[in-house]
Every structure is written in C-alpha cells, then in structure tokens.
Amino acid sequence: FLYGSVLLFSLHGATILAVGKYGDERDMEQITDRGTASERAALFWRWTMG
Fold first, then answer.
1. Nearest 5°: phi and psi at 22?
2. Which of 1, 16, 20, 26 is the most core-located residue (most Cβ within 10 A)?
3. Which DSSP state fits 25?
4. Alpha carbon of 3 to those of 7, 13, 42: distances in Å?
5. Long-range contacts from 3-12, C-beta under 8 angstroms, 24+ separation
6. Backbone angles phi, psi at 36, to 5 degrees
7. How many alpha carbons fall within 13 Å on the CB side of residue 12?
8. DSSP single-letter state for residue 50
9. Could you report the per-residue pLDDT of 1-50, keeping only the tens digit for each?
10. What are the DSSP E strand ranges found in the chain?
C-alpha cells in the first residue's frame, strides 16, 4: 500500500511539473485552490484519463 501511494504521489508531482513547464497555469491554480484531497485526486484522474 505504501509503495503504491508513493508511486502515485510521485507521478502526480511529475504531472504537475510537466504541465507547469508547458504553461498551463490556470489548471495549476485550480489544483492548488481545491480544498480536499479527493477533489485534487479527481482533477488529477481527469488529467490522466482525458
């Protein structure tokens, strides 16, 4: 469980860095403004699937 959590978190961080590099700051602000972790996870899942 811990290995999966660390792996998912590192992928999430890599996605944020890659998206920030390409100048998509509006979605970055949307992620940082979200309050709960489940909302951030839903946004991240929408990115990866969409």
1. -90, 5
2. 16
3. H
4. 6, 15, 20
5. 12/44
6. -90, 155
7. 17
8. -
9. 677 777 777 777 776 666 555 555 555 565 555 556 667 677 777 777 75
10. none
DSSP string, 1-50: -HHHHHHHHHHHHHHHHHHHHTT-HHHHHHHHH--SHHHHHHHHHHHHH-
Sequence-ordered list of residues with C-beta below 8 angstroms from that of 30, at least 6 positions apart, any chain? 43
> What span, in angstroms and rounded, lies between the C-alpha atoms of 39 and 33?
10
Residue 48 makes CB contacts below 8 A (sequence gap 6+) with 15
Packing angle of the helix pair 2-21, 37-49 (nearest 10 deg): 70
